[in-house]
Design a protein that fits this description.
Layout (H helix, E strand, L loop, with lengths): L2 H9 L6 H30 L10 H16 L3 H5 L8 H19 L3 H5 L3
């Protein structure tokens, strides 16, 4: 099943296979990460008053978002995720565990910048 087929099946009250759902979650998480990075890039450029470049334009980012979702939707999520990001790949799990340790350490130690900011 493709990502789009899985999403439609769930919306239609069907119950896709467990592994199809696992990989669909991973694919949607990857898409969400790309979108979040694009918004951060646009926000940073705007905040810093940078002159717009093609890749830092909202139009380009929207087209990229659209095409990325279009490409992801027509393939099985496991193919979209790929072996390097597969939750059944022991090397991926080891990298993930290491990155989570780094993130936990970073979150446990407040930076000087975060101490000064008020929201």
């Amino acid at each position: 099943m493709t990502l789009n087929e899985i999403i439609e099946a769930v919306r239609n009250g069907e119950k896709p296979e467990y592994d199809d759902l696992r990989y669909a979650v991973c694919a949607l998480d990857a898409l969400s990460t790309f979108d979040r990075m694009a918004f951060m890039r646009l926000s940073r450029a705007e905040r810093e008053g940078k002159e717009k470049t093609w890749t830092a334009s909202a139009q380009w980012q929207w087209e990229e978002h659209f095409n990325r979702h279009k490409r992801a939707g027509v393939v099985p999520p496991k193919d979209y995720v790929g072996w390097n990001n597969d939750p059944d790949n022991p090397d991926f799990l080891a990298r993930r565990k290491a990155s989570m340790r780094v993130m936990d350490a970073a979150l446990a130690t407040p930076s000087e910048e975060s101490k000064c900011k008020t929201y």
